Amino acid sequence: MAERLSRGESTSEAILQAAYRLFIQNGYHGTSMRQIAQAANLAVASIYNHFQNKEQIFVAVLERYHPIFEILPRLAQMQAPDIPDFVHRAAQFIAAHLDQRHDFLNLFFIELVEFRAAHIPRLLEKNEPMLTAFIQNFVARNSNLRPFAPFVLARAFLGMFFAYYVTRFIAGNNPTLGGDAHVLDDFVDIFLHGILAEEKSA
Fold it and tell me: CA 10, CA 193: separation in Å to the nearest integer?
């Protein structure tokens, strides 16, 4: 049975849910404390009993709703026989998960544009054990890896995926722009093998 929240916890939860909806709709700077209070059915002064300022609310929203907290544990436990299969499965899992989280890009760009990614180090620090487990799971699949630092490999993988995810909205379903259903496999193939074809031996 789920634990019953205290009155203070219920109020904090109401503030976070209201702020989350408003941040997604209006952005950080487009959302006021008064709007958050109204959406949570609270007086503005009541919010300050739980959060020092609006940025602290945003950080709490980011930590509550950012999909990295749901994705990394699954990646850390993902099973695959080798690195190519692991990367394909991981990319497909992330894509399917984010397809259910249409708020993600809003949160991502609020953090990136309005805060210049100031809170990302905190997110990574909180997720360091899971991030380390994911990297270990990745490199354990094959010893035939070029000698890059493990965290560089993880950044390259995540960079590849987000390049796919963001540009997907630009390409839409236009096959000329790479908007077909199999383009994620092409991104993964480029990540694994690069863009140059193997030279045929004479």
Answer: 50
What's the N-to-C CA distance of the chain in angstroms? 69
The answer to whether position 1 is within a domain reads no
Return the CATH number at 58: 1.10.10.60
The CB density around residue 181, as the number of other CB atoms within 10 Å, is 8
Q: How many distinct structural domains can be found in the chain?
A: 2
Distance CA 166, CA 104 (A): 11
Q: What is the pTM of this model?
A: 0.83
Q: Give the pLDDT score at 4.
A: 62
CA distances from 123 to 92, 128, 163 (A): 23, 8, 20
pLDDT tens column, 156-166: 998 898 888 88
CB 15 within 8 A of CB 51: yes
The residues, any chain, with a CB within 8 Å of residue 177's CB and separated by 6 or more, are 170, 171
* C-alpha to C-alpha distance for 100 and 164, rounded to whole angstroms: 16
| Residue 51 shares a structural domain with residue 73 | no
What is the residue range of 109's domain?
66-193
According to DSSP, residue 79 is labeled -
Across residues 122-146, what is the average pLDDT? 82
